[in-house]
Amino acid sequence: MIEALSDRNPTHVLQPLAEAARKDAHLDYIVVWNTAGIRYTHPDSKKIGKHIVGPYEETLDAARANRPFIRSFPTVTGVSMTSSVPVTRPDGKLVGLVSAGITMKRVNTMVAEQLPVVLGSAAGALLLASGSSVLASRRLRRQTHGLGAAEITRMYDHHNAVLHAVREGVVIVRGDGRLLLANDEARRLLELPTDVEGRTVTDLGLAPGIAQLLLSGREATDKVCPAGDRLLAVNVRPTDRQGGPPGSVTTLRDTTELHALADRAEETRQRLQLLYNAGVRIGTTLDVVRTAEELTEVAVPGFADFVTVELLDPVLRGEEPVGPSSEMRRTAFCGIRDDPPFYPVGELVRFVPAAPTALGMASGRPALEADLHAAPGWKAQDPERTQRILDYGVRSLITVPLQARGVVLGAVDFWRADQSELFGEEDLSFAEELAARAAVCIDNARRYTREHTMAVTLQRSLLPGGMPEQSALEVAYRYLPARAGVGGDWFDIIPLPGTRVALVVGDVVGHGLHAAATMGRLRTAVHNFSALDLAPDDLLVRLDELVARIDQDRTTESTGEGATGATCLYAIYDPVSGRCTMARAGHPGPAIVHPDGAVEFPDVPAGLPLGLGGLPFEAVELQLAEGSQVALFTDGLVEDRHRDIDVGLELLGSALAGHPDRSMDNTCQAVLDALVPDDPSDDIALLMARTRMLASTQVTTWDVPADPAAVASIRSQVARQLADWGLEETAFTTELILSELVTNAIRYGSEPITVRLLYDRTVICEVSDGSSTSPYMRSAKTTDEGGRGLFLVAQFAQRWGTRYTPNGKVIWAEQTLDDGAAGTHGTVESLLEQWEDPLL
């Protein structure tokens, strides 16, 4: 034994020996086990290697004291008597135990079979019976822990009362699948007949899921199984864990109401989640239509199968509605299907007074039509269409007016179809809450639309309304306002004296009415400064001073808003020389497309943005061949929150390159297609111009000596040139204007004196000299011999002026070609009459 217990596999040696000894001794079992309670032998081989069942601490204590131990305990086959002895090493250390046992049933059988034979008489049998009764009584006392029959009866009655009183079903099934016990609650929950004990589980008519669970033999914890109209929580445990009889005990709880509460709680959670989603998803844009669409998308399919929104027309325009109306425009739709026979989006719907929508608009409260088949007011709206809606499967409606700040904006209609439950009274409050949240967002979008429309109107009124007449450039432009708000981008094409043209692009940082108004002020200022015929860098200096004053005024008014951050690029193109002079104040530089299609971004000194002051601006002069293209733009074209400006310039160059003969209008569109995103975050202004040049036959220049006698010669040469151009009818006024300008230059200016005559849409006379002194027009007295020259020039010319050059000044006068000779002579006669002496 000691050697076997020390082996790695004691069972291999001890199991055959133990079984042979058990059979020879007619015992029920002989078990060899270690001090940890693990069996090495057993008649049932499946229990080898498993733990001893029941308390065994007293047995171990006796074994450690080197004493045998005898006790009785209940087993599956009845009460058993066990005798255990220790197995020790020579040094006295305990290495295991051997337990041998026999049941009382076997003892009785053996005694009943053998003693009558041994005694051989009836007296022996009587003695045996008496002795057996005494033994049985003692054994019963031990099994019942000393309780008598009365105590056992009271205990049984108590346990039975408890078993049938608990509100939990209890079912005990034997190992052979027969029902051993079912309490009253189990009978009620499973609807069992009265005579169920002893019947097979499969014969009780139970639900398949429950019957299978009772017979499976496996454990289950709170497994939900349907039983008729009930939902039962089932717990199953085997009864043979502690050596008990095979079978299972099952408890049942009715969780139908609990699941109903859980369903309602889940529905409430979903509604709260839907309201949360509405707060997040509705109103992401300040667009009325898009906000209405977001409302429909949130409610489908979580609350309704179809949702439609109707808004009053003033709301769509951004105006304040004057009150509820029966006429609304279908603005948005969303549904689980796309083909319901509702009014289409965009249609103006006139609701009859009995319609639920009209009633809701009038009362300001939601209206419920749980069953549209029984809704005469709704059917009266459009009998043919409503019948198609019913045939389509729509059968329930909630309509809620959209109200914000006490103003009715429209209505939202929630529809449910055949596959969904009908709307009930509990749905009204949720629909009203959802509509109230959406109405606030729609009203915010409406007010923004109104302000945006006002700002856009203001901005467009401040931008050029069309192309001015000029011959120096072929021009096209595009202006795209940002969807997020009106900005301060602007552009301009300004004809200048001498057939020159100024191109302007600017940007006021920011959005809204303030930016648009500031842009208008700057554009007007550029027009005024250009009338002074200033160079680009000088014009930007004056514009910078103006922006600084605007900022100062805004600060004084404590508005906190300034125009600092405005930028501008100003360029002047001269079609006579082909030179383009430009300067910029913090604005993106231009792009030049040469006649061969190559693109260049010339280096124009950037300068500081307008309003900062302190540093001068620097102008550059570019020589452009005829047919060159100039692209001026604002930063919104090339810069975006998702794109770096260098990438934008590269894309711009690619869009411009390789198409020298493309029209300016097509070029603008190609640039926008290549660079502008679907939702631009900033205004975009693009100005494209292709250069032209005046022919040499349209320009004539003469040098004039500083001698009054040279005036007659110049007049003759000018008359001949006008005759060559076919402009003989303008010769008189042109000679008169030129005589006055040349005489002033000879008398008050300095050499060199030059006369230039330009023929384009008008006839332009230019007289330049080396003096920077500017003449001015005055009112001569009747006694004065002079002082009427510039007055005559102003009367005969359409416009006149002075511009300064690095070497002096140029006095110019421009005449239109629409006036005939008669008109000219009429003007002359009227002027001469002003100096007639009434006394002569």
Q: Brief overview, please?
A:
By secondary structure, the chain is of the alpha+beta class.
Note the topology.
Blueprint: H1 2-6, H2 10-25, E1 29-33, H3 57-64, E2 69-75, E3 78-88, E4 94-103, H4 104-119, H5 122-143, H6 149-165, E5 169-174, E6 179-182, H7 184-190, H8 208-216, E7 220-227, E8 230-238, E9 247-254, H9 256-281, H10 288-299, E10 306-311, H11 313-316, E11 327-335, E12 348-350, H12 356-363, E13 367-369, H13 376-379, H14 383-392, E14 394-404, E15 407-417, H15 425-462, E16 473-480, E17 487-495, E18 501-511, H16 513-531, H17 536-556, E19 567-574, E20 579-585, E21 591-593, E22 599-600, E23 620-623, E24 629-633, H18 635-638, H19 645-656, H20 664-675, E25 684-691, E26 699-704, H21 710-725, H22 731-748, E27 753-759, E28 763-769, H23 789-796, E29 799-805, E30 808-815, H24 821-833
Antiparallel strand pairs: 1-4, 2-3, 3-4, 5-6, 5-9, 7-8, 8-9, 10-11, 10-15, 11-12, 13-14, 14-15, 16-25, 17-18, 18-19, 19-20, 20-23, 21-22, 21-24, 24-25, 26-27, 27-28, 28-30, 29-30
Helix pairs in contact: 4-5, 9-10, 9-15, 10-15, 15-16, 16-17, 19-20, 21-22, 22-23
Main location: membrane
Domain PAS: 157-222
Membrane topology: Multi-pass membrane protein
Can you walk me through this structure?
The chain is α+β, with helices and mostly antiparallel strands and 840 residues long. It folds into five domains: 1-108, PAS domain (Beta-Lactamase); 166-260, Beta-Lactamase; 282-452, Beta-Lactamase (2-Layer Sandwich), CATH 3.30.450.40; 471-691, PPM-type phosphatase domain (Phosphatase 2c, domain 1, 4-Layer Sandwich); 699-834, Histidine kinase-like ATPase, C-terminal domain (Heat Shock Protein 90), CATH 3.30.565. Helix content is 39%, strand content 25%. The protein contains 24 helices and 30 strands. The chain has a six-stranded antiparallel sheet, sandwiched between helices. A five-stranded antiparallel sheet has the order 6-5-9-8-7, sandwiched between helices. Strand 21 and strand 22 (599-600) form a beta hairpin. Helix 15 packs parallel to helix 16 (513-531). Mean pLDDT is 83; it is low at 115-130, 820-826 and 834-840.
